[in-house]
Structure formats: C-alpha cells, structure tokens
Amino acid sequence: MELFFQRVCIAGVGLIGGSLALGMRQQKLVREIIGVGRGEENLKLAKELGIIDDYTHQIEQGVEQADLVVLATPVRVMPELVKKAQGRFRSGAILTDVGSTKKELIEKIVRFLDSEVDFIPAHPIAGREKTGARYSDPDLFKGRWTIITPCSRSSPSGLEKIKLLWTRLGSKVEIMEPDFHDQVLAWISHLPHMIAYALVGVVMKKENEVPLLRFSAGGFRDFIRIAGSSPEMWRDICLENKKPILETITRYHKELELLARWIEEEKAKELEKYFTETRAIKEKVEKDG
Fold first, then answer.
1. Looking at the predicted structure, is the pLDDT value of residue 57 above 80?
2. Of 83, 171, 199, 281, which has the highest C-beta tally within 10 A?
3. Per the structure, how many domains does the chain have?
4. Among residues 130, 128, 120, which one has the least CA distance to residue 98?
C-alpha cells in the first residue's frame, strides 16, 4: 500500500505530536504539516525547527484539506476539537489520535464526527517526562509499541494506513479492543505515574518537617522521573480512565499492606523471597526490552 499524505494537521505540537511530524518528514511520508495549538511561542518554535510548515490556533482552519488529522492534545480536549471542526473535514480524511485512554474517548469523539471521516484511534507508548515541541525526536517511536483500537467508524483501508504509518516510524503495532487497552495501560503506565506523584507528594510533606531532599540520590531521582510529565495530560488520563486506575491503586495498596505486615512481624524469609522474585521480573523486563 502506498503511503503519502499531501497535508497533515497535528493538533497539539508537543513531544508526541512533534516527534510524529519529524518522523513523517524523515520517512518522506508528507508534503505539508499544519500545527494547531494554543501556545504561540511553542508553535513558532515548532515552525522554526522545521517540525511544521505553518500553524493556526483554529482547529477549523487546520483540518481543511488535510488527508490526515492527528489529535495529540490532552484527551479531554480532543472531543471538543472534533466538535469545533464539524463540517470542515475533507471528505475521506483519516482522523487518528495518540491518547493514552480509549473507550470513553472514542465514544465522545464519534458523537461529533462527520460521516465521511475515517476514525482510527491509536496510542504510541513512547512518552517522556519532557513536554513541548523543543523535545521532538523522530526516533521516539522506534522499537516501541503502538496500540491501535479500531471502532465502528474505522475502515479496513484506514486501519491499514495508520498501521503502516506507525510501522514506518519504527513502532511495533498491536490491534486491541478499546476497553482492554484501558485496562492494560492502567497497570503498565497509569499506576506507575500515580505512584511517582504520590511518592513526591508524601516526601514533600515530610520535607516540611525535616530537610530530606538534599540527601536524595540516584534511586529516588530515577523513581520520580515520570512525575515530571504534563500535569494537564495526567489530570485528563485519571478522569477518563477512572475505574481501571482506581482498581490498580486498590490492588497496589493491598500489596503495600502485605509488605508492611511482614516488616512489622519481621518476616525475613518472606521479604527476601518477595524481593528476589520481583528482582527477577525486573531483570526479565529489561532483558526483553
């Protein structure tokens, strides 16, 4: 299948949107890229860096004549953008996204979607804690998973194009049901972020009593790295994927209670066995990439 887009509109020219744009340029998959966003400074920088050709603050203008429209904003912004762009999409255009939640997001977007638009929801699992166009990297998706979650508005041809797009950018592609996607991501992405945010929160409360942070070493800094991610993005993820995230937090809390009980009762063998098993899992994950 030939893959080339005359005009691509990217709403949200941050780390993911900007990296997608640079990757498409590197692979010669696009003629023109239009950025859409609120921040003038970020959009100007994206244009200066050659990430986009031009930009607008109005999604209605951005989607006009675009073969491909990519939603790369916080997830709760996406349905409103589609609503604003109603009637302005090119007939036969493909709409996709890079959101970290899927089930509720798809339901909201489909309500406002023009009948002639092909919607292929997707999620590249390739984030970093840095935000903004300046951190765009065309190699960001290489060797990473991208999950595509087809819906009732996805055509077979559109699905193949988006699958090929992510493959050309170096991703490993998996097709998945939206509900299952949200459950999987709650465990392997959303929960780790909640833990990192909570750890920073509890340490900062203690810091008000006793100066701790000046003694922090690599372990603490490595663990909390992801707490530097976009607050707006993670606010929306929590609210959109509420039920699965709450389940993971409950299960994690029970695991901490188990460790607390073993420590209280000085269960040395149980603790060592647990730490040995979890270290083996950590090493396997690192080995398998």
1. yes
2. 171
3. 2
4. 120
